[in-house]
Give the backbone structure.
Amino acid sequence: MIGLALFALAAAAEPKLNCDDPQTQMELNFCAAENYKQADAELNRQWSATAARMREQDKAAYAPKDGRPGYYAALLEAQRAWIRFRDLECRVEGYAMRGGSAEPMMISGCLAAVTKARTAQLKEIVAAYEP
């Protein structure tokens, strides 16, 4: 009973966050982070589809045997490089508010924008291999 009462008290103490019309820096930071989480989830769904398509290319009888990395291996290497780019690029953008309360919002906003752009690129890759 005591645990349930403490949980109810903690839930009641949590502030209500409004991403439809954020008014405080805390809300702006939270909402920017939520936007990034959504963008990242969409990227992960698209990554699965694009990776599957590249694996199909690797299995195809007409896949080149030229000693270069396969379709999936090349995609994976590019994705790993993109993740490093994303993190470093958004760190730099966040530095515009370095040490301030808006720095997390700047970083999350950058992460969301760069991630949405990468998701579009991954969709284009799949489209390029459609019959």
